[in-house]
Amino acid sequence: MPEKLRVIFFGTAEFAVPSLEALVSAGHEVLAVVTQPDKPKGRGLHPMPSPVKQAALRLGLPVMQPRRVRSESFIETMRQLAPDVLALAAFGQIIPEALLRLPPLGPINVHGSLLPKYRGAAPIQRAIMAGESVTGVTTMWMEPTLDTGDILLAEACPIDPEDTTGTLTKKLADIGARLLIATLEGLQQGTIGRRKQNEAEASYAPPIKPEDAIVRWHESAQAIVNRIRAMNPTPGAVASIQGKRVKLWRAAPLEQSYEAPHGTIVAFQKSPPGVVVAAGDDTALALLEVQPESGRRMDAAAWARGVRLKPGDRFEPLEPIAG
């Protein structure tokens, strides 16, 4: 096998961009970049290319955007390209067996968790929501089922108490890029073995739904803070007060407890400026940064002054809505 590999890269989300860049930097020949079709976004619903497509175009790489990678015409195109390896990261479709059997060096996936924990579409968000202190990245030999393939390499990464999905994704993406290159080198040299996943330890990370973003004030302060961190930068944790929605971007659990119904504003703190809210299990948290409906992100204390909140005011229960 030549040192310079012929690679087809499958990826869509921001997590995958460093892996694509690393393949190019390592001198591998990227035959094509396969990514999801452009999706309408924003108020004008204009088609928006994926982060991987944007990176591929910047790197001068050919881009393919099949609606279904299972289509025979797409599979035949892949056969004609004759790759040594398929490399995948945060792509968004399950790869069919006909494609997985194609490359002699293997179909390799870069996954944002320490498998078998957090298989699925949202491993980073779900790990933060669960209050994990450690996660990581795994490279695996892909199977036509969801994140069940043999483990090749793995590297742990601590989750800092203030990490959001945004900050943790960047850390894990950089680890994943390094791990992908190391995996390809190890497979070429025959120094990496395949290790079966322990099904007894498996857990799942389903996609984030609109209801996941809704703050549950009956949960503990730490659980609420974890939810806020997990929903940052998208879609943003959401609550409602005075009949209006507000996104919660930053918060911190407090040691002091208050005797008040959960969701009740109980105080305003000066350092750092924040709105103290009672939560479940006799806990409390300070809201630090919020974004009112049709407004910009702002200091929570300034927002509270602007809408004239006072101790005793209470956040209302919120039902999920589409979008």
UniProtKB/TrEMBL annotation:
It catalyses: L-methionyl-tRNA(fMet) + (6R)-10-formyltetrahydrofolate = N-formyl-L-methionyl-tRNA(fMet) + (6S)-5,6,7,8-tetrahydrofolate + H(+). Transmembrane segments: none annotated. It comes from the Bacteria. (6S)-5,6,7,8-tetrahydrofolate binds at residues 113-116. Residues 208-307 form the Formyl transferase C-terminal domain. It is an enzyme of class 2 (transferase). Keywords: Protein biosynthesis, Transferase. Its EC number is 2.1.2.9. The keyword Protein biosynthesis applies. One of its GO terms (cellular component) is cytosol. Pfam families: Formyl_trans_C, Formyl_trans_N. Attaches a formyl group to the free amino group of methionyl-tRNA(fMet). The formyl group appears to play a dual role in the initiator identity of N-formylmethionyl-tRNA by promoting its recognition by IF2 and preventing the misappropriation of this tRNA by the elongation apparatus. HAMAP family: Formyl_trans. Belongs to the Fmt family. This is Methionyl-tRNA formyltransferase. The lineage of its organism: Bacteria, Bacillati, Armatimonadota, Chthonomonadia, Chthonomonadales.
